[in-house]
Amino acid sequence: MGRSGHACSVLGSLLLLLLLLGPAAAQKGSTWKTLSGDAPAVIAKGGFSGLFPDSSDPAYSFAVSNQDSAQWCDVRLTKDGVGICLPDIKMDNCTTISDLFPKGKKTYRVNGVSTTGWFSVDYNSIDLTNVTLLRAILSRTNRFDGSFTLVQVEVALSQYKAPAWLNVQHDSFYSQFNLSMRSYILSMSKQYTVDYISSPEVSFLKSLVGRVGRKTKLVFRFLDEGLVEPSTNQTYGSMLKNLSSVKTFASGILVPKHYIWPVTADNYLQPSTSVVDDAHKAGLEIYAADFANDFALSYNYSYDPLAEYLRFIDNGAFCVDGLLTDFPITPLEAIGCFSNLNNTKADHGAPLVISHNGASGDYPDCTDLAYQKAVVDGADVIDCDVQVTKDGIPICMSSIDLMDVTTVASSQFASQAGVISDIKAVAGVYTFNLTWEDIANNLKPMISNPFGQIGLSRNPRNRNAGKFMRLSDFLAFAKGKDLSGIMITVEHASFMAEKLGFGVVDAVIKAVDDSGYSKQSAQKVMIQSTNSSTLVKFKQLAFQSMCTC
């Protein structure tokens, strides 16, 4: 499939999802803690910029195909005063300008900082006809680089029928070139519907008060706390302490998300600040910025961007009035499908949610904490990979090799490592090399890190948290929980029987029977194995009546 064919396929799939999400969001009742009581707004930064180049035609087309999302345009002015949507004041960071005009590099002062690059103020709009957009974040796909030309603000306002948000980041910069951003924005607001106008410059927003329509919201954009606002010479951090003064020229504020949920140096959430409540008390709406599914998230979110959005809109204490994001589908899904749910009642319907070694993304595999978190998170079924110890005790362990999931490599048992070709080709210390007491009293669990080689670690604060579980412990824990069933995985049964003289199938059946599962029907017992002979043996031993193999 060629580039155009692939793009059509992607566009079609995303459009369908957006259309499906729209009605879901609209069906929500007035249960929101926003200033207005309405559902929070979703603002698509440069359109669907997480997939397409920021501010490109397809990015806007997809973002606005759902009327619940607003389109964000970072307004830049050309030499002849034409507005274009571009995410960076340095055009070389997001376009092919340097290829077309290799001698166009200039150095200007931007908010007092010497900045070198290619700037829109050096080119007439006609000069930029053949300039195309690039992804601004290099970790994203390059498939659409160079495929789309620049979008003028007037085109964005007239063509994409959705709420419009114009952001003016550097008004004072353009005034150096006798370009009036104020006049341009006022002209656009008279010709087209502009729902939001934001800027980090107080003087610019004050110049618009009373000159834009009543329905146009002026939003003061806060930058990092230590930066200085150019027209007042105050830091944004100090201005945050006087929101009543902001109310005199704006109806809302836009803040980096860390203003609301600060993050520690080791990437964990701190307690939330009072900024949302402070803004609402001052009569200001508050919008949170810097959301993207592929940014490094706090470990508290377990690499789940949906969980991050819900933290800002459905935490029981407050709700922001809007979310500025590169991936508008995800917050729309959070708002329309996953917020304001009744989490006190579990519905174990189809399809079942089955844990993988418990909540192994948050805690070490098959530990008490992993299983507890899986239940809290709403799993229908929790699972146990059964291994056997030297003294014949069935335990829950995701690998038969303790080197994979415990701290055995740094223990006194490391010298017992050896190669068993029937299991794996490299040396390991196996569960059957140690007694249950050896494991429980001398080793610690170790969280799995399947993507550790590319720097994506799981929950480092809890890398060794939790206690190991025997199969009997697992069964006792599960029996008292609101679950539809349990899954027991058995591998290497033939090896254990032939080389160790241990009948793991018999041991599992006895443990399940001793725990009382054979005398109840509330929870189903499922047996899993990649070896069909193991499953056959379970059935031959009359286990079929109380399990699914």
**Integer tally of domains:** 2
Q: Can you tell me the CATH topology of the largest domain? A: TIM Barrel
Head-to-tail CA distance between termini = 42 Å
The number of helical runs is 19
What does the average pLDDT come to? Answer: 91
What spatial form do the alpha-carbon principal axes imply? elongated
Strand tally, please?
Answer: 22
**CATH architectural arrangement of the largest domain:** Alpha-Beta Barrel
- Helical content, roughly? 25-40%
Low-confidence segments, ≥5 residues, pLDDT <50?
1-29
The structure class reads: alpha/beta
CATH superfamily of the largest domain: Phosphatidylinositol (PI) phosphodiesterase
Structural overview:
This protein folds into two domains: 41-89 and 151-338, Phosphatidylinositol (PI) phosphodiesterase (TIM Barrel, Alpha-Beta Barrel); 368-548, Alpha-Beta Barrel (TIM Barrel). It has 19 helices and 22 strands. The strands form five sheets. Strands 1-2-7-8-9-12-13-14 form an eight-stranded parallel barrel, surrounded by four helices. A six-stranded mixed β-sheet has the order 19-16-15-20-21-22. Strands 4-5 form a two-stranded antiparallel sheet. Helix 2 (57-64) links the parallel strand 1 and strand 2 (69-77).
Can you tag this structure with a few keywords?
single chain, alpha/beta, TIM Barrel, six-stranded mixed β-sheet, 29% helix, disordered N terminus, glycerophosphodiester phosphodiesterase activity
